[in-house]
Amino acid sequence: MSDTTSSSHPAHLAHHFDTVEQQRESSSLGMWVFLAQEVMFFGGLFLAYLVYRSSYAAAFAEASHHLDVVLGGINTVILIGSSLTMALAVYCAQTGKRHLLVLFLLATMLLGLAFLGIKAVEYHHKYVDKLIPGIAFSYPGPNAQHAQLFFSLYFAMTGMHALHMVIGFALLIWLVNDARKGRFTPEYHSHIENFGLYWHFVDIVWIFLFPLLYLIGLHDAAGGGH
Amino acid sequence: MSTLRVPTVPVETREHYLNADYGIRSWLLTVDHKRIALLYLASITLFFFLGGFFAVLIRLELLTPQGDMVQSETYNKLFTMHGVIMVFFFLIPSIPAVLGNFLVPLMIGAKDLAFPRINLLSWYIYMIGGLLTFAAVVAGGVDTGWTFYTPYSSTYSNGYVIVTGLGVFITGFSSILTGLNFLVTIHKMRAPGLTWFRLPLFIWAHYATSLIMMLGTPVVAITLVLLVLERAFRIGIFDPTLGGDPVLFQHLFWFYSHPAVYIMILPGMGIVSELISCFSRKYVFGYHFIAFSSLGIAVLGFLVWGHHLFVSGQSAYAGLIFSFLSFLVAIPSAIKVFNWTATLYKGSISYQAPMLYAFGFIGLFAIGGLTGLFLAALGLDVHVHDTYFVVAHFHYIMVGGAVMAYLGGMHFWWPKMTGRMYPEGWARFSALIVFIGFNLTFLPQFILGYLGMPRRYHAYPPEFQVLNVMSTAGASILAAGYLLPMVYFLWSLKYGAIAGPNPWGATGLEWRTPSPPPTENFKQTPIVTEEPYEYSIREIKVV
Amino acid sequence: MSVHVVPLRIYFAVFASLMVLTGVTVAVAYFDLGPLNTIVALSIAVTKAALVILYFMHVRYGPSLTKLVVAGSFLWLFIMLSITMSDYVSRSW
Asked: Do C52 and A219 touch (CB under 8 A)?
């Protein structure tokens, strides 16, 4: 089998691949392998959470009261919604609907921005309430030390998650730009698909963060509050 | 086996990857996996000698029982920098980033790796992390040990923990991206006819290594993030006064760092399989066993990290499980050693330098591996933990094993990479010097450790001096053995005999293209119809 | 060979299920079920993640290699969590 001739070599086929199919499968596998290492990356944080929550369950539940369930819940709905818009964006790329693709990418960006905005509000509340370990921490209840562990994990985990959202947002700017130029077709839209995988992964991390951080103390006292 | 050939087309007029383009931009902006391999070769060689420099200082201090050359805090910095540089900037990248990058596409008949630009990004990330760590060294260094145990590293150390931690964190992504590239390449870009069980064992080894890189490195990455946050913001995750657990740091750290030692050794094992078969003119005995044992080591290697925590306060029951699993992980390694030995049986053996390194590997790795079993035994580990016994064990594997495999591979594939042969006489002499110097350095350390000399101490009781002097003497011989190849490899670039496509008469697709290869590797995509290592089926000619 | 295009109704059905499950997990959290609280919360989270993985991320329709990568990564996470916890759980034995 000799090298393919230039007539069957579309412009978007890189020189080291033999077929478009091989290129598409390779980039998809590459993204999935990257997500596998992301599972282990966040996994380390979940391990720390697991160890300390199992040791200090009461203190963690108590500390969790200081998180705003309403804002957290709204953010969960927003993020799942952005996963929907992203999936719809992939659908549009697959079916060649260029303008709708741009629209859904923009919607995803908007929802992502809303998520980050609400997170900023939450972080600000924590700053005002002096619940940020290392910066301003003064916990009003018992088990202050163990509560500090909870908040350290809260900021590390939601902070790392937010960082991934910011990176995703930046990538979306680039993708929207390319989409507007008509770069993506039903034959070639790997970037949209693979970014979608990344975005859904970030959503899945939040799907676990929300109940583990926000919902663990609700049955003990009146929930919510800053 | 003649290695001097008169080529029909002079090397200077044929276009290949080295002369395809000129100028520094063509190197710093290359996406050719072969050039990137050479970029890595230059950088890891620099880091090897930097790490070696710290080793020299350590061995000089240990010539006398008193701590008279440097203060204890300085000595702590010496062994820390030696470890950090050697582990993260030499051992982990070396074989995959140099030989893996160069050979993986060639061995599978591909034009490049799956993601050439990510490959270049890997090198830049490695350099940025390396420069950051180097800056920390120059600014004053770190004294925590390469293991960064808390709470010393997070709270009490006066060194540049954050900068070093960030440097290692950044370099970790280089590892992750290389592993990602190899995995996708091996899955998706094999030439027609190259089924999984026709792959060279070098590829199997790098596949298994890449699995470990992907699944383990992110854990040390997040661990270093937590350490940096702890030190910068006093958040309390590993702080006992807040109910934090320093042992949690050790769990997180060793979850990566134990599999990391398999990242360091598996590629070397892949090289040894290639060398043993070529220089015995024989198929590798138990090919499938060796292939599966690579995967077995990768999997089992993730289940044993707690053997580093036997005396840390970890529960004895967990210790029992980790001890048992650590004994299990020795089995696939042993299978490899038995199969290499069986390959030699009734083979037609020749003793070129690569083969000498392969022999050295088998013997020294066997000793290193067996002493690992000593350490895996809970009761015995209590006696030798944190002594020179441990130091000797891992140097037998890392240096006697991995570094010798690396050198063997560099000699074997040097003609392919450069189109020149190295001087065989000097190479054999160097291999001998390395072997003698290595054993003189590290064999006494087993005895020292068993007798009770602790590691990471700059002073020791006078009765240990004789063995320490022997060790330092060995280190100077070893250093000479490492410097010699630097000299003659460089010499060979201008004066070495010109090498043809297959100076060893070896099997493998990389030998079916000119030396040095053209940028696109193969003029025509090869089609594979043979099983690997078919030395007995037909005569593989030297060309 | 073309990539499978998931019908729109499936996307909307998955989204609706995710919304319902989110509501359920919040509601259940207000009741004291003892250890069941955590089990229910995690089960719901796993179900939501599975829906996202299988349908939004197309794993249901994708190659087996993808399924292997997904399964492998969660298996490895489970290994890290369970073996580490075996230390903490058994320290007091």
From this structure: no
- The amino acid at A216: I
Probe site for chain A from B242, B315, B524 (most A CB atoms < 10 A): B242
Query: Per residue in B368-417, pLDDT tens?
Result: 999 999 999 999 999 999 999 999 999 999 999 999 999 999 999 999 99
Helix, strand, coil proportions of chain C in percent (round to 5)? 80, 0, 20
d(CA B384, CA B372): 11
DSSP for B345-379, please give it.
TT------HHHHHHHHHHHHHHHHHHHHHHHHSHH
Residue showing tokens 């299990």: B328
d(CA B269, CA B443): 22
**DSSP secondary-structure letter at B14?**
S
Task: Provide long-range contacts, Cβ within 8 A and 24+ apart, for A165-171.
Answer: A165/A112, A165/A115, A165/A116, A165/A202, A166/A116, A168/A112, A168/A195, A168/A198, A168/A199, A168/A202, A169/A109, A169/A112, A169/A113, A169/A116, A171/A195, A171/A198
DSSP C60: G
**Helix (H, G, I), strand (E, B), or coil: what is residue B460?**
coil
For the cut 90, the answer to whether the pLDDT of residue B418 exceeds it is yes
Q: Name the residue among B56, B55, B80 with its Cα closest to residue B165.
A: B80
Helical pair C64-90 and B201-233, crossing angle rounded to 10 deg: 50
Do residue C76 and residue B302 have CB atoms under 8 angstroms apart? Answer: yes
Average pLDDT on C75-83 reads: 97
* pLDDT score, position B495: 96
For chain A, say whether C54 makes contact (Cβ under 8 Å).
no
Q: What angle do CA B128, B139, B54 make, to 5 degrees?
A: 85
Domain ranges of chain C: 1-62, 63-93
- Domains, in order of start, for chain A: 43-214 (1.20.120.80)
CATH number of B24-512: 1.20.210.10
The DSSP code sequence of A104-126 is HHHHHHHHHHHHHHHHHHHHHHH
Residue pLDDT, tens place only, B426-447: 999 999 999 999 999 999 999 9
**What is the secondary structure of B60-121 as a DSSP string?**
HHTTSSS--SS-HHHHHHHHHHHHHIIIIIIITTHIIIIIIHHHHHHHHT-SS-S-HHHHHH
State phi, psi for A56 to the nearest 5 degrees: -130, 55
The backbone torsions φ and ψ at residue A198, rounded to the nearest 5 degrees and listed phi first, read -60, -45
Look up residue A168 and give its two tokens.
Answer: 């995703």
Q: Specify burial of residue A129 (Cβ count, 10 A radius: 0-12, 13-18, 19+).
A: middle
Distance CA A126, CA A226 (A): 8
At B519-535, the pLDDT tens digits run 999 999 999 999 999 98
Cβ within 8 Å, pair B236-A149: yes
Helix (H, G, I), strand (E, B) or coil at B132: helix
pTM for the whole thing? 0.95
Q: How far is C80 from chain B (nearest CA, A)?
A: 7
Residue A131: strand pairing partners: A137
Q: Supply the pLDDT for residue A217.
A: 85
Residue ranges, chain A, pLDDT below 70: 1-8, 221-226
A47 vs B contacts (CB less than 8 Å): 248, 251-252
